[in-house]
């Protein structure tokens, strides 16, 4: 097959491209230029979105012996990922920019262009597995549970899965680094990327304060019973479940820490309370995407609510607008805007965006 290898400049995508070439595919490497001004994005060799990363990707392609190009998708990235991130925070929700990047950039813009150019598939360094099932291509968790990325791939359609390759799904991360060393890839010991790539210094709150200073200028911090405890300079500085940085002068009566329970962006009101008040027993999810046939009746499953969060046993009930989730294992710190990915064992059944939570 003719395949396009998306090379971020990190060790995972480099080894994925090398494995694809070794398997006999005709591989072309590409690096995505996602910043309109590279100096405004994160600096340092962290595996995504910097000038250093582009150079690392080019060197890896040279070692592998494949053609290499840089694709400028900065305008699409800014609109689909950066602007979405800002609007979600301004609306009091907590987005996942890496999931949105996979959905809108790596497996939409890139794959669409790849197919138009005559490529058969896109190969990436994501840790996930694909297999054929009765309803089409199935997306499964990776063997390395600590590196599994099926959650951020849960937004992919059947068409996208049919044209994707994930060569690392059966490998533990240490083995991938060892392989990179054996192949002479200089990125073998390069640190993994964890921060949000378009926030150069990792200070999300400060970045949001600069971008959203005219959207929400502040409001009150109140207790669950409405007592005003303090003020803040912007509700987008907070996320559900946050404990640090509340700067409340009045201590709780029982001396225990307070957590953010709710964010109301219109009035700017941030409600805080005890940890147990964060317990969520149910979810309402919108924008459903089912991997295969959509369920027509309630199903017992597990759900994952954060990129590296634990699984929760649940009953998922489809509806006209999306699906509801009754959590058999209550969760804490869950916020609207996050993704809910539904699993049957290791298989991704579908995903949706959390629109509301049920407390208690």
Automatic annotation (TrEMBL):
<keyword id="KW-0547">Nucleotide-binding</keyword>
<dbReference type="InterPro" id="IPR004506">
    <property type="entry name" value="MnmA-like"/>
</dbReference>
<dbReference type="Pfam" id="PF20258">
    <property type="entry name" value="tRNA_Me_trans_C"/>
</dbReference>
<dbReference type="Pfam" id="PF03054">
    <property type="entry name" value="tRNA_Me_trans"/>
</dbReference>
<dbReference type="InterPro" id="IPR014729">
    <property type="entry name" value="Rossmann-like_a/b/a_fold"/>
</dbReference>
<keyword id="KW-0067">ATP-binding</keyword>
<keyword id="KW-0963">Cytoplasm</keyword>
<feature type="binding site">
    <location>
        <position position="125"/>
    </location>
    <ligand>
        <name>ATP</name>
    </ligand>
</feature>
<dbReference type="GO" id="GO:0000049">
    <property type="term" value="F:tRNA binding"/>
</dbReference>
<feature type="binding site">
    <location>
        <position position="32"/>
    </location>
    <ligand>
        <name>ATP</name>
    </ligand>
</feature>
<keyword id="KW-0808">Transferase</keyword>
<keyword id="KW-0819">tRNA processing</keyword>
<comment type="function">
    <text>Catalyzes the 2-thiolation of uridine at the wobble position (U34) of tRNA, leading to the formation of s(2)U34.</text>
</comment>
<feature type="region of interest" description="Interaction with tRNA">
    <location>
        <begin position="147"/>
        <end position="149"/>
    </location>
</feature>
<feature type="domain" description="tRNA-specific 2-thiouridylase MnmA-like C-terminal">
    <location>
        <begin position="286"/>
        <end position="354"/>
    </location>
</feature>
<dbReference type="InterPro" id="IPR046885">
    <property type="entry name" value="MnmA-like_C"/>
</dbReference>
<keyword id="KW-1015">Disulfide bond</keyword>
<keyword id="KW-0820">tRNA-binding</keyword>
<feature type="active site" description="Cysteine persulfide intermediate">
    <location>
        <position position="197"/>
    </location>
</feature>
<dbReference type="Pfam" id="PF20259">
    <property type="entry name" value="tRNA_Me_trans_M"/>
</dbReference>
<feature type="domain" description="tRNA-specific 2-thiouridylase MnmA-like central">
    <location>
        <begin position="217"/>
        <end position="273"/>
    </location>
</feature>
<dbReference type="InterPro" id="IPR046884">
    <property type="entry name" value="MnmA-like_central"/>
</dbReference>
<feature type="active site" description="Nucleophile">
    <location>
        <position position="101"/>
    </location>
</feature>
<comment type="similarity">
    <text>Belongs to the MnmA/TRMU family.</text>
</comment>
<dbReference type="GO" id="GO:0005737">
    <property type="term" value="C:cytoplasm"/>
</dbReference>
<protein>
    <recommendedName>
        <fullName>tRNA-specific 2-thiouridylase MnmA</fullName>
        <ecNumber>2.8.1.13</ecNumber>
    </recommendedName>
</protein>
<dbReference type="GO" id="GO:0005524">
    <property type="term" value="F:ATP binding"/>
</dbReference>
<dbReference type="InterPro" id="IPR023382">
    <property type="entry name" value="MnmA-like_central_sf"/>
</dbReference>
<dbReference type="GO" id="GO:0103016">
    <property type="term" value="F:tRNA-uridine 2-sulfurtransferase activity"/>
</dbReference>
<feature type="binding site">
    <location>
        <begin position="6"/>
        <end position="13"/>
    </location>
    <ligand>
        <name>ATP</name>
    </ligand>
</feature>
<feature type="site" description="Interaction with tRNA">
    <location>
        <position position="126"/>
    </location>
</feature>
<feature type="site" description="Interaction with tRNA">
    <location>
        <position position="338"/>
    </location>
</feature>
<dbReference type="GO" id="GO:0002143">
    <property type="term" value="P:tRNA wobble position uridine thiolation"/>
</dbReference>
<keyword id="KW-0694">RNA-binding</keyword>
